[in-house]
């Protein structure tokens, strides 16, 4: 797998941003937008290797996060604007986008505010914004996710179900992330505070969901304690060209659980063969790992 890093970053209107490019050149790249508190080094390397096998992957530290300078924006729309700036600086006319958690919210804003730049969107473990009805976030989540430091038990609680299989997959993923050489600094307390401010003030996109005409894959683990999977269902019902996929015995970090990594790879890398995602208007989009992503 080809991998390179701009040692000095790229200069944008939001500051100098650290960035890494993985995978072969050619075709439309996949832009990754990271979770709350995450840096570009917090993607599971097994996930990166799988997805970058056949296409170019772009990951970066947003302004004020990790190795990047600048200031963390106080809005989700501001985070989307930074992503658009990265695409422009790289000289790209269009990208596919995979946003995880907070990155999924930024991906939705990106697709709405810069529709000419986004061909297809994957919203993973995320939300369209406030949803009053249905299951709510686990009451322990706000405390655990905002601790000054998170240990392995915190991540297992936030990201994975408590089953033996899911816990083992979670421990393996966390070990792979920790074992990476040359990792940048963790997200600072100030950056954390700004991200919390952005999330808490976000009105969501449900009032604009009908504008999302592009193909969207909405995916999550069925047992997400951070962002209940019901919110993925709500988004899939409101975006005109969305498809919902939920995975059993999986949580917020479902895309790092072994076979699900391969499923995400298959779905993202077959983009050139997919003209559209069929809109789902019922829970029929829920599938088992026997046929991941309906392929």
Question: Any overview of this molecule?
Answer:
This is AB hydrolase-1 domain-containing protein. Residues 29-258 form the AB hydrolase-1 domain. It comes from Agrobacterium genomosp. 2 str. CFBP 5494. InterPro entries: AB_hydrolase (IPR050471), AB_hydrolase_1 (IPR000073), AB_hydrolase_fold (IPR029058). It is built from 9 helices and 10 strands. The protein has 295 residues and is an alpha/beta fold. The chain has one domain: Alpha/Beta hydrolase fold, catalytic domain (Rossmann fold), CATH 3.40.50. Residues 271-295 have low confidence and may be disordered.
Order of helices and strands: EEEEEHEHEHEHHHHEHEH
Please give the order of strands in the largest beta sheet.
1-4-6-5-7-8-9-10
> In whole angstroms, how far apart are the ends?
25 Å
The average pLDDT is 88
Radius of gyration: 17 Å
Query: Superfamily at the CATH H level?
Result: Alpha/Beta hydrolase fold, catalytic domain
Query: Structural class, judged by helices and strands?
Result: alpha/beta
The CATH topology annotation reads as Rossmann fold
| Count of β-strands | 10
Overall morphology: globular
């Amino acid at each position: 797998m080809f991998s390179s890093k701009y040692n000095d970053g790229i200069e944008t209107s939001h500051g100098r941003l650290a960035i890494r490019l993985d995978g072969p050149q050619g075709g439309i790249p996949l832009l990754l937008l990271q979770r709350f508190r995450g840096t570009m080094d917090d993607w599971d390397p097994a996930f990166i290797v799988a997805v970058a096998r056949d296409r170019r992957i772009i990951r970066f530290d947003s302004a004020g996060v990790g190795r990047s300078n600048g200031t963390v924006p106080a809005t989700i729309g501001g985070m989307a604007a930074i992503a658009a700036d990265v695409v422009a600086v790289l000289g790209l006319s269009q990208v596919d986008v995979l946003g995880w958690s907070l990155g999924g919210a930024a991906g939705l804003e990106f697709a709405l505010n810069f529709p000419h730049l986004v061909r297809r969107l994957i919203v993973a473990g995320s939300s369209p914004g406030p949803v009053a009805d249905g299951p709510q976030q686990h009451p322990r989540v706000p405390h655990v996710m905002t601790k000054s430091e998170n240990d392995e038990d915190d991540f297992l609680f936030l990201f994975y179900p408590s089953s033996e299989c899911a816990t083992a997959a979670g421990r393996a993923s966390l070990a792979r992330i920790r074992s990476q050489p040359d990792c940048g600094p963790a997200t600072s307390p100030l950056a954390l505070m700004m991200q919390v401010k952005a999330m808490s003030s976000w009105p969501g996109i449900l009032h604009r969901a009908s504008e999302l005409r592009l193909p969207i894959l909405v995916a999550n683990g069925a047992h997400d304690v951070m962002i209940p999977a019901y919110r993925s269902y709500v988004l899939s019902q409101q975006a005109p060209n969305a498809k919902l996929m939920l995975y059993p015995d999986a949580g917020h970090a479902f895309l790092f659980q072994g076979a699900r990594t391969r499923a995400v790879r298959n779905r993202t890398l077959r983009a050139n063969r997919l003209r559209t995602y069929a809109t789902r208007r019922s829970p029929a989009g829920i599938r088992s790992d026997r046929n991941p992503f309906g392929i």
